[in-house]
User: Fold this.
Amino acid sequence: MTSGSEKVKILGIETSCDETAAAVVENGNRILSTIISSQVDLHARFGGVVPEIASRQHLLLINDLIDQALDEANLKFGDLQAIAVSHGPGLVGALLIGVATAKALAYALKLPLIAVNHLQAHLYANYLSGAPALYPAVILVVSGGHTELLLVKNPDDAISLGSTRDDAAGEVFDKVARVMALGYPGGPLIDQLAASGNPAAIDFPRARLDNDSRYDFSFSGLKTAVINHLYHARRRGEEPDKADLAASFQEALVEVLVEKTVSAAHHYQAKMVLLAGGVAANSRLRSALKDRLNRQLPATILHYPPLALCTDNAAMIAAAAYPHYLKGNFAALDLNAHPGLGSGLSS
Ligand code: KG4
Ligand code: ZN
Assistant:
């Protein structure tokens, strides 16, 4: 464990989905190296992630990526203080490659092993990129498998205000892109295409839900509406303008995310709003949230990670491991992967 002046270097390993990644972070806030190998090209022709291909690719790459992360940081294994790995949520076979690698390294190097919740790590991407420790904070976690609004009253006390009842936000981006034959992953492609479209061209439904569920989300109606719109147009022999369709869909989805986040920030008098997860990379979500907060709650600070730290990476894993290191919260060598792990962010 650390004395006040010791520099703690943690190797982070991330293999929960289709990015293989390794990074070294010092004291939870200084990135010494971060290496990411995306498998997007391998999965693109299948229109989504193929779990077996993801696991095999992680297995092929992980050792080299760890060597690269050490090289780039100018370090040797002996300079590390701990090995951290994302153990869930994610694809079980994919997670297992990272978990097995981390366990082998921890055992061989006699270093502590730290199990990191992937969703908590997305939140740490904010602190890694300079977010201040301001509370209460409202956090919108939006990734490929998760959509949740959290209230953090202080670092040890967070509650879940609501989550999605059906699809996650990123999942809807990916599914809509698939029916529009844009490719995979859909989020960045729709984001790009939407930039040249008219967001008011098609009035897609916004599910606001009743008062009791005002911080819950539901995106299946929006997804169905986009699919129906395309289906009916094609039956008439028409092909809708793709940019308008992308912009109108994105606007409907983003509007609900922004409305609920700002309403929670207002209700709980949040000093800060954070975005976390892959969908936090969405340019419209960032700009709409910024505009709305500026207008309605100008004193509330908005922070989101830079693009490279929004989507899956290992720097966020090593950063999230640091508080565990300080508390001596280490995993045993029988650590397993937990594909269905919740965010664990709320009590
Ligand atoms: O957090 P992440 O990298 O992986 C998971 O933990 O799920 O999130 C991936 C998701 C995908 O659904 C992807 O389409 C979405 O994030 N995404 C975006 C953008 N960039 C990535 N969604 C909307 N706009 C983007 N620019
Ligand atoms: Zn993720």
